[in-house]
Description:
Blueprint: H1 2-22, H2 24-38, H3 43-47, H4 56-62, H5 68-79, E1 93-100, E2 103-109, H6 111-132, E3 141-144, E4 152-154, E5 157-160, H7 162-166, H8 172-175, E6 178-179, H9 182-185, H10 190-201, E7 206-210, H11 213-227, H12 231-234, E8 240-244, H13 249-259, E9 264-271, E10 274-279, E11 289-291, E12 297-303, H14 304-307, E13 326-332, E14 339-350, E15 353-360, H15 374-388, E16 392-400, E17 409-416, H16 423-437, H17 439-446, E18 454-457, H18 462-469, H19 487-493
Parallel strand pairs: 1-5, 3-6, 3-7, 7-8, 8-9, 17-18
Antiparallel strand pairs: 1-2, 4-5, 9-10, 10-11, 11-15, 12-13, 13-14, 14-15, 16-17
Helix pairs in contact: 1-6, 10-11, 11-13, 15-16, 16-17
Amino acid sequence: MKTVIAIIFAYFVNTRNKKWISKPIQSQNKTFKKLIKSASNTEFGQKHDFQNIYSHEQYQKRVPVRDYEQLKPYIEKAVAGYKDILWPGKPLYFAKTSGTTSGAKYIPITKESIKTHIKSARDALLNYFVKTKNFTLLKGKQMFLQGSPELEKKNGIYHGRLSGISAHYIPKLFLKNRKPSWKTNCIEDWEKKVDIIIQETIGEKMTIIAGIPSWVQMYFEKIVSSEGKTISEVFPDLSLYVYGGVSYEPYRKIFDKLFGKQIDTLATFPASEGFFGYQDQFGKGQTDLLLLLNNDIFYEFIKVEEFLKGNLARISLKDVELNVNYLLIISTSAGLWSYNIGDTIKFTSLEPFRIIVTGRIKHFLSAFGEHVISEEVEKAMEAATKLHNVAIREFTVAPNINPKEMLPHHEWYVEFESLPKDMLAFSKALDKEMTRLNIYYKDLIDGKILKSLEVISVIRGGFNQYMKSEGRLGGQNKVPRLSNDRKIADKLKTIST
């Protein structure tokens, strides 16, 4: 009976979502007006004259683009317990994340914004059910590999990781059959947590598994090692893997081997700042994401090429173009106003608006003016691994600016599943693809400013060792694909072969 109700509800939600999908600009205009009106009496709204903002153009004149550091004075007031700062009332939560120049970030989550996070995650799965007709997944167990749901209360507001906060809002549809147990989810030691999760899931009818690829990979590998079977043999009913936050392509070959058979995948684009998109098509090679326009998020976009020149001119959805690399700027019902989240995207479709995530604006390599982005290194790695029939576990790229006996160059730190038969040929394939993808890099190579890239093999488990040493093992943590400095590279070098 519950499955029948779920099926009816899935079709209802899918039909309802078609309304805003078919009217994207109207949906964004409606969201814009709603956000401005709601926050007009907040400290931020009063300072930026929200009561007299009636158009996007007026908004742009009054509200500049800000990153976390620039918005921090307002956030600190909210963290201290003051109300009506960025959004009416007090936030329900602060999602604690890492990665700023001054330490941790505290991203506000309000009673309005948390609803959009949960609704979007739910709709992603419901859309999958409708499009694939694979409703049998509801009859098994679902496992969400996430951070601890234990929260710390400060000044009347709970603090924690986004995945931990979300654990308090698992839809009733999935709550009964959810794994791991609450007690296990609260374990902070990631390696211990994975071991206990394995104990809780072995023998269960697992149908859906979700989590960031690098950490799900650890879970899968431990199972394969202990059981001597593929994941599909251990979990014969498993038919969907849900991921978000990173590109799946670098992990695909290893996951295919671990699965032992074809498993559907569902890409999502969640962040502490909002849930921005999910995969809505499931044909071969279709992994782009439907941009969510009914989520209390107003989107703006800056061309990455212009941003790197210091030009912060931004456009709304109606003016975007296909295949242009944009920096994503958001205004939300959590009180983030023209906020630079640091993610870069490209539009793959304008009817409806679909995107791919191309990387992080802070995760780029331009030590020599080459402006290499995550999308380029991932495409180059994909091409080289296919050509040489090798699989990789993880990689990152950094500059070597002052080598002892050679020209400056890029160093690629790669943890291989198995080493290429010819490492030099593999390196050349990477370099050839990079010169094809990035004209600035090609010019530097041709002009003898840079020499060809160097691949440095990292020992098995080396990236996990690095993440553990940084206190970032598991959960939502991800290794940056690119760095403009050598902080990661120098640490990896001590554990490379």
